[in-house]
Every structure is written in structure tokens, then in C-alpha cells.
From TrEMBL:
One of its GO terms (molecular function) is proton transmembrane transporter activity. Residues 32-41 have a biased composition (Polar residues). This is ATP synthase complex subunit 8. Pfam families: ATP-synt_8. One of its GO terms (cellular component) is proton-transporting ATP synthase complex. It is a single-pass membrane protein. The gene is ATP8. Keywords: ATP synthesis, CF(0), Hydrogen ion transport, Ion transport, Membrane, Mitochondrion, Transmembrane, Transmembrane helix, Transport. It is found in: Mitochondrion membrane. Belongs to the ATPase protein 8 family. It comes from Ninox strenua. Residues 32-55 are annotated as: Disordered. One of its GO terms (biological process) is proton motive force-driven ATP synthesis.
Amino acid sequence: MPQLNPNPSLFTMLISSFTLSMIIQPKLLSFTSTNPPSHKPSTPVKIAPSTSPST
């Protein structure tokens, strides 16, 4: 099995990495969340015990 030339795939990886980190990522990070997390303490939910007869 012949060895593949790494130059085309290396170039493609570098260009896609650059595109993601320099162009797409800042645009995605600039959006604000429409539903920010609340800082309220979570209250535990009480679950009523089952009243079904055991067999």
C-alpha cells in the first residue's frame, strides 16, 4: 500500500482550523443567550410514595 502525500490533507486541516478559530468562533461567541441561567437555589421536589399494593 503506497504512502499518501500528507501535504493536501495538512493544508486542508490548517485552513479549516484557521477558519473556525478566526472567523466562525468569534461570531458564535458574540450571540447572547436568550435564556440566561437563574441564580435561584433549586428546591428539591418531593415525590409522594406509591400507594399501589405490593404483590
